[in-house]
Amino acid sequence: MNVIKRLHGLTGETQQMDKTSYEREIANLRKRIDRIISRRPQRPELSDIPPQRQGFSLKDLISGEETGTSHGPCFVTESLVDNSSYHGDRRIEALSKVNMGAASILVNDKCLKERQLTDGLFLDTETTGLTGGSGTLTFLIGLGWFEKDGFATRQIFIRDFSEERAALSLLGEWVGNKGFLITFNGKSFDVGLLSTRFIMNRLHNPLNDMPHLDLLYPARRLIGHRLDNCRLMTLEERVLGFFRQGDVPGSEIPQRYFDWLRRRDARLVVDVFEHNRLDVISLASLMAHLTELMDAPHDLTQTDHRDLLAAARLLIERGDALKARCLLEGLIGSGQEAAVKEARKMLSLIHKRAGQWEDAVGLWEQMILDHPGDIFALIELSKWYEHRIYDFEHAMDMVHQALHHASDTAEFERNALVHRFHRLQNRLTPR
Fold this sequence. Notes:
By secondary structure, the chain is α+β, with helices and mostly antiparallel strands. It is built from 19 helices and 9 strands.
């Protein structure tokens, strides 16, 4: 039943439209559609736009070329940052000295430990929207990798929607030559969006099951505690010593691309290419910094002690107590009071779990010597006296000292100390 018949049924009309009337109605509808379309301004083809309106072509401002594929062409640009160049505080050559064992700990993926850094592909994208979804196009795909002479970057640009399939096929080809990905928030955004585009274009998705080092999460764990936010630009300025000049804000980039589609003026996107290229290089710099935090020894005058404590916590969580001990022992010798106190606490617990009681007790006693009101050390010594050597009097004495200094602690902590004190009293009371 067609729409017209349904309407007749709803309105109670019983008259049926004959074939001639139906065809006449369809013809009238087509004429109305044609009149509406004829009133819309026609978009001229690029070749029809006078030269003075075309602006600058991509090749006028960007060193790249059209690259053909079996699915058509797209625009590709390549560059190399040589080893002697600097990105922020670091030389490019220094960025290539990444310990892949430390990288595997960052993301808790042991398979990365067997990889070479040259197997890694750094990836960052620019899109028509920041929320993702099937309607969002990845119009610029930035890639980077280490070579013998420096850090290479390659950018795939979709000049029009029709070039997406060609761009994705090129990406698939280059991804296939690498062993793992490095991104910043790629797990939540870039890779998911690209995967959607591969599916929509009926192409094999090479990103599936590829080992992936997303730097956002370890950056939050190791550095985020002392920053207002963990945006890449914030990390560049506060951690990597890199400051951009005249950079296009990320929020403007989608509109730049839409303007490019209308005007085909390369001046609209040249800054977007540079923004993306710098993002890719910053990924390499950030990876080097984060992996260095996981390695000992450190120059404690150049590294934030809070970051090293965070690195030690992550190492303990990942089960690498040996590296954590090296970090913490270095911090204990730093002379910075807050760092020394926390490092002793963490190191004592490592010794405790390993059954190295002499080392653990020595740290607790030193902590109390330096800070008589150190409740953590007093409680741990109380446990040791009670459960390891059955000296209940000394155990109760430790709890009594802790209660004396517990005025600023939370109520539940004081209640726990009182409960422990009464329990020890009962054990000392003759029956």
